[in-house]
Amino acid sequence: MGGTSLGSFLMVFVLVLTLLLVVVPMSEAQLRQNFYADVCPNVESIVRTAVTKKFRQTFVTVPATLRLFFHDCFVQGCDASVMIGSSGGNQVEKDHPDNLSLAGDGFDTVIKAKAAVDAVPECRNKVSCADILVMATRDVISLARGPSYAVELGRKDGLVSRVSDVEGKLPQPSFNLNQLNAMFAANGLSQADMIALSAAHTVGFSHCTKLLNRIYNFSRTNPVDPTLNATYAAKLQGMCPRDVDPRIAIDMDPNTPTRFDNMYFKNLQQGMGLFTSDQVLFTDARSRPTVKIWAHSGQTFYKAFVDAMTKLGRVGVKTGSNGNIRTDCSVFNS
């Protein structure tokens, strides 16, 4: 009986273990730190050097790269599909209206880092554009005096990029908390992850056209959104007149726009969130406690942000025959 019971136990144990292994996504299982240790051991320092050079040319490198990473991962996963350029009349992800405002400096950062990597003979065509984007994003955050962290690597580049795939996949400035939570949950991200990632708005800029409705035409009884700090609203009206040139842009964070910090949350406490989707994080009682904690402790926010970025980097990862390593980040391999 003892032998039979032991045998039965082992069979059940093996079955449970097999089921657990099946449940873990293979794409996530492939990702690991130092993925390129055997084929391109210095890849991270090569990328960092190229990104630092670009950063010294323009600070826009920081928000542009960070936003590019986010827009890539939320549409078809983190596979650099957003970098594919239009050809032969076919519209790709970057042609969608939600992606037209992506700054060229983000694309340029990845392209230059890819060129630097491929200039090393042992590394040539060994590192994916998707992984270079992940490394570059980590590096710009650090260069803006934000947290530095280890990244998981091992992604392949996607084989598809369609403008139609973008529709309904990216959060909008007018979103409320329910809409934000639903969109992030669809990508395996929690409310805390969403709040942490929203703080990427602590750097960068927005075009005035994205907020005109909030400062002039909010409602019939309240032309200005009442959740906006009145002094801040007047300042925004001064920078963004009704007939503003659509090319005019303003800082997302009016206090420390070139530093990746927790000022974003302090601004929300003062009614100085630029978008409705920002300010709602404080006006909604469900998310307000998190905003207060992270406004008080930058280090606590940094840890949550790194955790959220790591989870975001696992979304829709391509492995095996579902992807490849592009020789040119903006063109599918022929």
UniProtKB/TrEMBL annotation:
Keywords in alphabetical order: Calcium, Disulfide bond, Heme, Hydrogen peroxide, Iron, Metal-binding, Oxidoreductase, Peroxidase, Secreted, Signal
GO molecular function annotations of the record: heme binding; lactoperoxidase activity; metal ion binding
Annotated residues for binding of heme b: H201
Residues that hold substrate according to the record: P171
Highest taxon of the lineage: Eukaryota
GO process terms (BP): hydrogen peroxide catabolic process; response to oxidative stress
Protein name: Peroxidase
Protein species of origin: Cucurbita maxima
